[in-house]
Amino acid sequence: MNGVLDAPAIDYQQDRSVRTSVRERAYLAGNWGDTNLMYGIETDEFSERWAPYAVAALRIVTALLFLEHGTARLLAFPLTEMANPPAWSIMWVAGWMEIVGSLLLIAGFRTRWVGFFLLAEMVVIYFYSYAPQSPYPLLNGGEGTILFGFIFLLLAVIGPGEWSVDKIRARNRDPVVGYEAPGGERTYDS
Fold this sequence. Notes:
The termini are close together. Helix 2 runs antiparallel to helix 3 and helix 4 packs antiparallel against helix 6. By secondary structure, this protein is an all-alpha fold. 57% of the residues lie in helices and 0% in strands.
């Protein structure tokens, strides 16, 4: 165990015949330059070590930015034109989803489910608020909504990364939890 992802250590020097065949296939396929294939047999140790931390940083920063949208809607801080929507309107419900979802994402609790629900919110808001204005995101102002949506999709797929309640909860489950995802919360324990 290497301690970072709780995955078994990989001996990159063990089987040179496999590495050579991958390099030969890359050469024949026309990848003349770098033979460190991103999706080949060779792996990038830097990415393996730091990917869960980068995912966690993305999750936390995105949640903090998204929290600002919810507080602007419901608490009028910072004061914007979308402040104080009528109770139970779609914007009021969206504000609560943004506040609660952001706090859950900051903690890294149920990240995959929260990411899925916030993605659904972004889809609804985009087609409710932005798409009727223009089919082009640059013209209708919906670029941020699309970016938030794809970040939430990413979090729903790969998980929370490091520094999360989900990772702590995963340690307390059965020994075989699943595959080792870039988010880092699923591990093989021995």
